[in-house]
Amino acid sequence: MAPLSEEEDNYVRLALLLKGVTPRAVRTYFDREFPPSSLTSTLSTSHNTLLDLKVKRIINQAQWKLLIPGNGIPDSKSFDVTLMVCLIRNLTSINPPINGFDSLPLPGETTPGSDLARIKYYWNKLAHHDSNTIDSTYFNTAWTDTSNAVGRLGGPTMYQECQELKVKSLDQSNQEIILEIKHSLEEMKELRLIMDNWGKEHSTMTENLRELQSSHSKLTTSHSNLQAEHVEVKRV
Predict the structure, then answer these.
(1) pTM above 0.85, yes or no
(2) Which of 30, 109, 143, 154 is the Cys-Cys partner for 158 at CB 3.0 to 4.6 Å?
């Protein structure tokens, strides 16, 4: 594999941090709030709240299946960052960041709620990033924000892991991850193209439907007029 550019290297490292380390940090906090031994009963007690979140599409079908698995025993190890943060913010009394859970918290905010929102923010930014490069300014800011949040939520060992990941050599063992990331990006681009084309086709179909409806309306009016004229002719 050809050597990565600095921007590609930034992307891979940040992806490894957000997809490999942050879920474990969030899960460490999650398991303190929802001890694994009582997770099943807690989710069962909160069923109506969870169902309302599903109806509002805050929890999707795939996540719902993780909360209510076939074997009846949910496991936080199968939960992604988005789902864990969702459960924490809706089923606990955690204090939200000043600007809420859906925005990047202010630099001085270091509460658990702020750190969860911070990780969720960068996680979502990466998920919607449409290239395999990240400039160094954004990378350094995101890395500092995220690794500090990881340290506060997951402890010093995880923070040290973040520091080592930032400078370690991305050798042969990372090639599969890099290829998988690039492949995922290509799939995302193809999906967006399909959705764009579907949107255009849908617009065309909608316009055609409107024209058909208009034509039908005109034909109906014409038919009514002809019937009226026919009645008048019969009267004469």
Answers:
(1) no
(2) 154
